[in-house]
Amino acid sequence: MVKKKISDIPINVRKNWVDKSAMLSVLTQCSLLGVARSVVYARFCQPEQIQEDEETLLLLNEIDAEYTRHPFYGSRRMLVYLRLLGHQVNRKRVQRLMKILGLAGMAPGPSTSRPHQKHPTYPYLLRGLPVIERNQVWSTDITYIRLARGFMYLVAIIDWYSRKVLTWQLSNTLDSRFCVDCLESALLKYGAPKIFNSDQGCQFTSTIFTNTLKHHGIEISMDGRGRALDNIFVERLWRSLKYEDIYIKNYNSVLELTAGLTDYFSFYNTQRPHQSLGYSTPDDVYKSGVGGGACIVDKFNRSIDVKSGQHRVAA
Predict the structure, then answer these.
(1) Taking the domain 137-288, which CATH number applies?
(2) Element (H, E) at 77
(3) I need a surface site. Which of 142, 182, 212, 295 has the fewest CB within 10 A?
């Protein structure tokens, strides 16, 4: 009989072996099992444990809705907006709430999102680059999803050429692991893209995430600081999702949210016509490889012929 090593057992199995009521500390158990504590704590933290009081949830939802409309708003402008609505808040509280949501204004300055100090960042590779085929460029981002009495985080990966949502994943924490799971799912189902773009958040600059990309030979691209259009297609996806589904249905539980997102992304990919795709659906364009395309205009180099690949320019 062949004995398995601990490292041969999937991490999703090992993390469930950690028991808070055991004699050994969680730290010791994680060390013995080779499991990151953040993964275990994320399992211990059930959705109901991150519920906030009614006032805080109201503020979180107001900030989320306004940020969806104006993603360039930082804490100062958000403070003015909330006070105009009648909320008695100070800037420190607004900053704390925006941090919970993982939000930062897109304008350059001290309030822009910061990567982990020890994580390397990568240059933005897409400015002026014609995207003329599927799986040439994938992109990702994280957004806050509100529930009636709580919230979750959603990560999604889209194909730039077709705007198709390839995979998505929910989490109750901003841990890197759920982003890696989403990436691995997309790679398994669709193969590897040539370039993968994200922002400079610590989830995407983490070693586990970037090493997954490098292992598949994927070039890494990251949004420039203060560049509102660098990841515009994911931003548009979030806006559509929230105004067409989340804000309307006001989901009560994680189970309802998961079912609702499953339905919405199916609708988005297979039924919702996109003007930028000539009113075709992302799924049709991805399957056929015809009718899509994208290009983030390089204002410093206008000599690039972005129509050479017979695709549509989008900014």
Answers:
(1) 3.30.420.10
(2) helix 75-84
(3) 212
